[in-house]
Amino acid sequence: MSGLPAGTVTFLFTDVEGSTKLWERSPQAMHRALSRHDEILKNAIEERGGYVFKTVGDAFCAAFATAPDALEAALVAQRTLLSGEWEENWPLRVRMALHMGAAEERGGDYFGPPLNRVARLLSAAHGGQMLLSAAAQEMVRDQLPTDAALIGLGERRLKDLFRPERVFQLSAPDLPSEFPPLRTLDTYRNNLPL
User: Fold this and answer.
1) HEC string for the chain
2) How confident is the model at residue 38 (pLDDT cuts 50, 70, 90)?
3) Whose CA is closest to 131, among 161, 109, 111, 154?
4) pLDDT tens, residue by residue, 136-188
């Protein structure tokens, strides 16, 4: 399929936090909000050269040839989502994660360890939060938008992944910056050995 990034690809995964509750509370309003969400994400991704290769419910999976383009798409989408007027005073809170690596492309979809890692990174985030892996951070740190910064959140153990990940949060003055602890294995106490 032409247009798909190949080789080392930057993946942007997104997901609406608490969407099941929102659907239960007000299906009509959620339907309209999700239509708007989809348009905002699709525009932000495609205008920066990204390719949406999968959507699952309210989750988007996009691929970019470069990490700075993926970061810019995430930042623009998050700002648009947070600044808009939403019905019933509940903006959709979307978590986002970026990771880059070599993945296999087949039939318009991607497969391999980088997708597992970005999915696990996404599951650690909270609505409104944008997380980056060390690989993605390395590629964007010298090309950040002027008002953006990366905050190191330390090395974290992500579910089902053998190697821990150094995690970074994208920060900007007009975005939320305070979040609960990441949803990682380090957060939950247990008596299992590392």
Assistant:
1) CCCCCCCEEEEEEEEECCHHHHHHHCHHHHHHHHHHHHHHHHHHHHCCCCEEEEEECCEEEEEECCHHHHHHHHHHHHHHHHHCCCHHHCCCCEEEEEEEEECEEECCEEECHHHHHHHHHHHHCCCCCEEEEHHHHHHHCCCCCCCCEEEEEEEECCCCCCCCEEEEEEECCCCCCCCCCCCCCCCCCCCCCC
2) very high
3) 154
4) 999 999 999 888 999 988 887 777 766 788 889 999 988 888 898 887 776 54
